[in-house]
Input
Amino acid sequence: MTQVAILPDPLKEVAPPRGRSGGAAWAIWLLRRLGLAVLTLWLVSVLVFVATAALGDPVRAILGRDYDSNPGRVAQLEEQLNADDGLISRYLSWLGGLLTGDPGTSLANQQPVWGQISANVVNTLVLVLLAAAVMIPLAFGIAMISAHYRRRRPDTVIQTILLALAGVPEFVTGILLVALFSTSVFNIFPAVTIATPGGRPWDNLDGMVLPVATLVLAVTPHVSRIVRASLLEVLDSDYVELARLKGIPESVVMRKHALLNAIVPGIQVIALQLAWLAGGVVLVETLFSYPGIGRQLVDSVRNHDVPMVQALTIIIAAVYIVVNLVADLLSVLLTPRARTAISS
Output
């Protein structure tokens, strides 16, 4: 029986090249993720505004006993906060200010909010980036050493130390570092960060050591333990065993085979820890008098400065969302299966 080849109909629509359809799929995925990020940030803004509005009358909280004796100041603050408007109207006005780069005026000193927090945002970002630059290679190095000596004494010692550090709050770690390196034991580093008026904290690098060390000790155990678990799973896989049978040295197997395949879970946990650092610096900055948004947030809450609290909270939430978005993108780029699923 003769078989007849069926040729494609030239009048039918030709499928687009794979590269073009893959690019469109990537664009759709990225737009979807950006849309979810914007939606999340909007929901956070609603939550922050409603929560601050539910705390009670901010004017009475600010003036305290002077509320009844200073009607002029009461009227001024009520006008500044649009107290006579409805909740939705006040939220829309505040949201419009955020979108235009004007989050309002501080109630404590009547200065624009952004002018007071812009320098502190940079200071906190530098502190977090320095901690990340030390933490990431340190955590991966510890995980590789621990995985290499798994179920042996070095691994046991390392895991015990990591568990102990993970169970200690960051402010306790900071106090211990101050007691050890800023007192009569080893008087090496200053107990607080010294920043001159108009200067930056990193102008005096000695004052940056203890805050950075506190953050590194707070997040390194979590990252290292997750990366170690991923490394052990990869090291027990068939392709790693095949690489060993080929005579490839164990150090090369660890670096080029195991570490590359265990890096995606590491990226996810690093993103979570960096996002935590954006809000977790509150205690560290307060402890070391570091001029960042964490310390400023504490002062703003103490002074009942509602516009300042709202702006700082939104900034911290935005950093959290952006860090997780970048982590998702890196995870997809480094995972062939995920890239194929998006492009197909």
